[in-house]
Write a structure and sequence with these properties.
about 230 residues; mainly alpha; 2 strands
Length: about 230
Amino acid sequence: MSITPLSFETGYVERRSRLTTFFRLILAIPHFVLAWAWGIAIYFVVIVAWFALLFTGGWPRGLYDFTASYMRYMTYLYGYLALLTDDYPPFGGGADERYPVRLNIGEPKPRYDRLKVGLRLFLLIPVVIILFAMSLVWQIGALIAWFAIVILGKQPRGLQDMIALGLSYQQRAYAYALLVDEQFPPITGPDPALSAGPGPGPPLPPPATETAPENPATGAPHGPVTG
C-alpha cells in the first residue's frame, strides 16, 4: 500500500488552442456555478465527517465518496483553468483516466488517527503557509502561459512543469484539509527512481615493463633505458 492514497497526474501537449485559451474563463462559467454549489455542500459534509472520524475513527463511506468526487472534479477544473490542458472538464467527479489532469484517490482507510483529526485545524497552519506560496506559483505560471499560448500557440514545457508543481501541492493540501488524507502533504510527489548506471568494467591490464635490448656481443641486456 502506498504511503498516501493520492497521486496527481498530468500530461504535456505542446501545441495549444489560441481560441479556447483566450476565452478560457468564459468557457468555464458553467463549471463555476457547479463548483460553487458543490463547495457549499462539501462544507457541511466535512463537518459531519470530522465528528464521525473523531468519535468512530472511520469515514462514513457515502460521505467519503462524495468528498473524493468533489476533489477529483475540482482537479479537472483547476487543470483546465491553469492551462494544463485544452480538454473541457467533465461535469462530475468520476475517476476519469482519459482526462489529462487528474487526482487519483484511493479507498478510505479502515481506521484514522483521531488525534490528527482533532488537531487538524492546528496542523493546517504550516500547510496553509506553503499552500499560499504554491498557489502563487501555479497562478503566475498560468498567467505567463496564457500569453505564450495566445501569441505562439504553444505551451512551454517549463511553464507546464511550474504550473503542475503548484497545482499538485494545492490539491494535496485541499485533500488534507477535507480529511480525505491524513498524511502531511508533500511538496512534490514521489521522486522517480534513478536507473542504475553501468557496472564496473573488466580490470585494466598491468602496465608493461620496458626492458633494455640485449647486447649482441655478450647476450646480456644493456642497463636501464633513460629518457
